[in-house]
Amino acid sequence: xxxxxxxxxxxxxxxxxxxxxxxxxxxxxxxxxxxxxxxxxxxxxxxxxxxxxxxxxxxxxxxxxxxxxxxxxxxxxxxxxxxxxxxxxxxxxxxxxxxxxxxxxxxxxxxxxxxxxxxxxxxxxxxxxxxxxxxxxxxxxxxxxxxxxxxxxxxxxxxxxx
Length: 162
Ligand code: FES
Ligand code: FES
Prior knowledge:
Blueprint: E1 2-4, E2 9-16, E3 19-25, H1 31-38, E4 57-60, E5 63-66, E6 79-81, H2 90-97, H3 107-120, H4 126-132, H5 143-161
Parallel strand pairs: 2-6
Antiparallel strand pairs: 1-2, 2-3, 4-5, 4-6
Helix pairs in contact: 2-5
The structure holds FE2/S2 (inorganic) cluster (2 copies).
Residues 101-107, 138-141 line the site of one FE2/S2 (inorganic) cluster (FES).
């Protein structure tokens, strides 16, 4: 870690979407702030800033986490995935095909959360899916379409693995 700009900022290497980037940060910067304002990765959205809505969800070492709750400095040596790293993924395609999007504000967070579900619980049943999705809020699409998208991906993944 290098000190930049006198004592107020530092340079921190971060692993994001398979690349290592240098972030110039203040010690109090959140991961969400650095992704959006430092790297221009605006797919992670800021809404509640309080860990309640999931709009800012990213994967940290494969686990879905609310990036508004983490300091950037805590994520040195972690593997971070944002929605920009899931372009053309099965989950993204399923959200489009099942109309699991309306305004789209919550969608990146949902897609990342669902990606983690597909990777960690490929045999998830309905109640597991519903419980998993509780960490993310959507104000305008029906949750039924989001669940349909997840189920379609799980089915596809299971059929590929057979
Ligand atoms: S903005 Fe992070 S949980 Fe709502
Ligand atoms: S699609 Fe609008 S908040 Fe979810």
